[in-house]
Write a structure and sequence with these properties.
The chain is α/β, with parallel strands linked by helices and about 250 residues long. It has one domain: Aldolase class I (TIM Barrel, Alpha-Beta Barrel). It has twelve helices and eight strands. It has an eight-stranded parallel barrel with strand order 1-2-3-4-5-6-7-8, surrounded by five helices. α1 crosses α12. It is globular and about 45 Å long. The structure holds phosphoenolpyruvate (PEP). Phosphoenolpyruvate (PEP) binds next to β8. The site of phosphoenolpyruvate (PEP) has 13 residues, from β8.
Amino acid sequence: MNPDRRPLIAANWKMHKTLSEAVAFVESIQKETGPLADREVVIAPAFTALHALREILRQKGYSLAAQNCHWEEKGAFTGEVSPAMLKDLGCAYVIVGHSERRQLFGETDETVRLKTTAVIKAGMDPIVCVGEVLAERERGQTFEVVRRQLEGALRGFSPAQMAGVVVAYEPVWAIGTGKTATPAQAQEVHACIRAALAALFDKTIENKIRILYGGSVKPSNIDALLSEQDIDGALVGGASLEVGSFKSLVQFTI
Ligand code: PEP
């Protein structure tokens, strides 16, 4: 972690929690942690809970994210949700290009770019996910894959548009598997991402952008991961679903 970048812990609830469960969780976690000054917490519930959570997610340091969106502003796209609708619901962030969207719903680098563009245009910050599958890591292609995904998502943006972008490095082999990249493995990919951002943009952007690590982050490994220079926070699935474990993540110390 670098003191110039505010650490961010994001909860990706995927397709978990009914409305009442989501509300109960957010009420408890805010009570347990109190307002946050030196870190930011982002909750990404299912679409169905966004409106209710906007009403109660009032504590300092907390904000709301959606897990996905369409790239068009409106139109005949049955079942889709537009960035403007999410902004209207109080979302500050949208997760874009999560590996589950890429693997299960056919998302490509091009659709990730379209969504990233639409999210920025609507006035929110995208959390752009990149990461290699196990076979790519074993073939030594991790850096190449991550660079290609980053360029695919972010090419053509101006430094001003990039100001609030967050990148999440999520090795696919570590998501929901209990296998975490070691802090050193994660750090070397985060450094590669930062170098790729410098090549795509400039030094200011390179130093400003927060890069989260995701993949079986839990209370027992968060401190070591966040101790690394280029790891600015975590995107968390499984361990964000229980108030106890999420509270420990939010209260990380390095
Ligand atoms: C995720 O879904 O983004 C994720 C990192 O999940 P988990 O923490 O369960 O590996």
